[in-house]
Amino acid sequence: MNPFQKLRTEGVFKWVSLNLSENLLKSSTTPLLGAGPFRTCPNPRFYGRKKRAQSESLESPVETSTVNCDNVSPISRKTRAQAEAALLEYLHSTRSFRFIDAENMSKNSPFFIKKILEKVKNKAEIGSSITRFLRYHPINEFEPFFESLGLKPSEFVSLLPRDLMFLSDDQVLLENYYVLCNYGIARNKIGKIYKEAPEVFRYDSGVLQLKLQSYIEMGLSQSAMIKAVASSPYLLIGDANMEFVKVMERLKSVGIESSWIEKHLSEGNHYDWSQILDLLCFFSKMGFNGEQLGELIRQHPGILLERSGNMAFSFVGLLLKLGLTLNEICMVFLQFPPIEFGKFYRNFRHCYLFLIEIEMDIEEIGRIVHSHTVLLGSCALKRANSLLTNLSVGKKRLCSIIKENPQELKKWVLGSKVGPLPNSGEDLKSQMQKTKFLSDLGYVENTKEFEKAFKLFRGNGMELQERFDFLVKYGLDRKDITETIKVAPHILNQSINVLEMKINYLIHSLGYPISSLVTFPSYLSYTSERVELRKSMYNWLKDQGVAEPNLALSTIIACGEDYFIDCYVNRHPKGAEIWQKLKKKIYSH
User: Fold this and answer.
1) Angle (CA) 205 90 88, round 5°
2) How far is residue 372 from each of residues 335, 404, 409, 411, 583, measured CA to CA in Å?
3) Phi and psi at residue 218, in whole multiples of 5°?
4) Which 3 state secondary structure label does DSSP give 528?
C-alpha cells in the first residue's frame, strides 16, 4: 500500500469511527444507488487531512438542534452568501442532491447556517472554512430540510428522527414530499403539513396522489386544493373529509365556485370545516334562501371564514342575548354594510361594552341594539374614559344623549376631534348644588382645596347631601361626619344602599358601635368580603390563643394581605388551611 492509499484509508476509518462513536449514523437499508431525487453519490470521495485544516478547531459532527430561541442574530450579507454557497456545494456536489433541492435548503435555513458559522473560527475565509468543516463532519440533513419547509428549530426539534441523519435514508418521506411539491404546494408551506399531519409522509407509493386526485374529481380546482391543503393539512388524513366536501357542495349550490375558495382562503390560517358547515346549515335554518346566502358570502367572506365561522356564531349569540329574534338577525345580515365582518364585529362588541361602561340600563342597550345594530358595528368608538374626559360630561348625561339620538355615536369615533359639550341646565343646577354642599362643609370657593374637593366628591350635590344626611340619621354627629369625609371623601361616592349594608354589618355582625367610623372611616371603603374574611380569621386565631384580644378594627382590616398572613395567619400551624377554607366559603357567596 503506497503512502497516498494509506492516507486515504486512514481518513475513511477516522470518518467512520467518528460517526459511529457519536451514534449519529445507522446502517442504511437503502441501496447505494437509491431511487428518487436524493441519490447517494456512487463514488464516494476520499479526503486526507491537511495541517491547515487541523488548526481550525474542527469539532464533532453538527449536533441535533437544541435552539430554543427563534431569533437569528444579524449576519453580514457577504458572510451569509459565502456560507450558503458552501452548503449548496456540499449538498449538490458531495451529497448529490438535485440542484433545486440543495439551493432551497441552503437559501432557506438561516438558523442552520448560523450554527455552522459558529463551528468555524477562520472568519476571513468563511466559504473554504465551511467546505473543510463539512468535508470531515457530515451534517444531520433533516435539520436544514425541515427548516427550508418553513419550520423553526423549536418546532422541528421534536420531529427529527433519532436514528437517521441522511435524507436519502428516508425514501418514503421524500416520495410524499415530492408529490406535494409537484402538485404545486410551496416548499415553505409543506412544513406546516408535516407538523400537523406527519402521517401524510408515511403513505405508501401512490396513496397521497390518489387522495389529492379524489378531491379534484369532486369538482374542486387544483389551485383551490393547494390553498385548502396548505391551510388544513388534516384534509389529507384518512378518507376524503366529508365536512369539507359538503361545504364545497353547499357553496356550489348557492352559486359560489371553487375560484372563490382559491381567492379567499389564507394558507396561513387554520380552518375548521365542520364548524363552517354548521354555520351554513344555521343560516339556512334562519331563513336565508340560496340567492341571499350566496350574495352575503360573496360580499362578506369573513362571515364564513373568520375563525371558521366562530365569530359569526358569537355575533348571533350576542344579538339573541340582547333580545333579537332570528328573523331580526337575518335582516341585520341582509342589511350588512360594506365593511369587513371581523372589523364590524369588533366595533359592535366595543360599542356594547362602551354602553355597559357608562352604566346604561340593559333594557336601553337592548332597545338601541334593536334599532341601530348596523350603526353600532360601523362605529369604531373612542374609549369611554377618554370620551367622558374630552366631552367633560358625566355618565348619566352621556347616556341621555345617546338614548335621545344614537346617531351621535358617529361623532365620537377614533380619529375625530371631540371637545367639551356646552353645559345643560341640569349640569348648571348640579354644579350649584355641589358647590353649596362643599361650602357647607367649610370649603372656600376659588381655592385649590375647593377645586380638589370638587373632583374627589363624585355625583351631583343632591346625591351627596342625601348620603351625608343618611349618616347623620344613623347617629353620627354632623361635626364628626364633616371631619371624617374631609379625610376620606370617597365614602360619599357610594350609594346609600351600599353604605347601609356596610354599616349594618359593622354594628350587627362585627359588634362595633357606629362611632368607630370616626376613628376608622376607611372601613366604608373596603368590600364586605374582605372585612368578613379578616374578622373571621382573627376570631379563629383568638379562640386558638395565638392572637391578642381586642385588636382595633383598623389593625385587622387595613393592612395588606401578605402582611396579615405573615403576622397573624401563620402564627398557627393550621392557619393557612383555615384561611383558604374561609376565603373559598366567603368569596363563593
Assistant:
1) 80
2) 11, 13, 11, 15, 44
3) -85, 0
4) helix
CB 251 within 8 A of CB 284: no
Amino acid letter, 106: S
User: Cell digits for 1?
Assistant: 500500500
- The reported pLDDT for the residue numbered 472 is 87
Question: Using alpha carbons only, how large is the chain's radius of gyration in Å?
Answer: 37
Q: What distance separates the 2 farthest-apart alpha carbons in the chain?
A: 117
β-pair partners for 413: 381
| Predicted pLDDT at 493 | 84
SS3 120: coil
What's the rounded Cα separation, in Å, for the pair 291 and 303? 16
How far apart are the C-alpha atoms of 437 and 466, rounded to whole Å?
Answer: 10
pLDDT for res 73: 63
Q: Which of helix, strand or coil describes residue 479?
A: helix
Write out the DSSP string of 427-449.
HHHHHHHHHHHHHHTTPPTTSHH
Backbone angles phi, psi at 74, to 5 degrees: -60, 135
What nine digits make up the cell of 101? Answer: 433541492
Task: Compute the half-sphere exposure of residue 329: CA atoms within 13 Å on the CB side of its CA.
Answer: 21
pLDDT of amino acid 51:
36
For the chain, what's the residue count? 589
10 Å Cβ neighbour count for 177? 26
SS3 label, residue 546: coil
Bridge partners of 381? 413
Concatenated DSSP letters of 55-87: TT---SPPPPP------PPP--HHHHHHHHHHH
Extract the C-alpha cell encoding 29. 437499508
Q: What is the rounded distance in angstroms from the CA atom of residue 326 to the CA atom of residue 320?
A: 8
User: What is the DSSP code (8-state) at residue 413?
Assistant: B
Q: How far apart are CA 409 and CA 394, in angstroms?
A: 16
Contacts of 370 (CB under 8 A, 6+ apart): 322, 323, 324, 328
- Ranges under pLDDT 70 in the chain: 1-73, 423-428, 589
Q: Is the dihedral of CA 366, 371, 376, 382 positive or negative?
A: negative
Q: What is the 3-state secondary structure (H, E, C) of 268-328?
A: CCCCCHHHHHHHHHHHHHHCCCHHHHHHHHHHCCHHHHHHHHHHHHHHHHHHHHCCCCHHH
Select from 41, 192, 11 the least CA-distant residue to 102: 41
Instruction: Give the separation between CA 149 and CA 44, rounded to whole angstroms.
Output: 28
Distance in angstroms (rounded) separating the CA atoms of residues 430 and 448:
20
Q: Determine the Cα–Cα distance for residues 263 and 246; give it in Å rounded to an integer.
A: 19
Angle between helices 310-321 and 326-334 (to 10 degrees): 130
Q: How far is CA 430 from its chain centroid?
A: 45
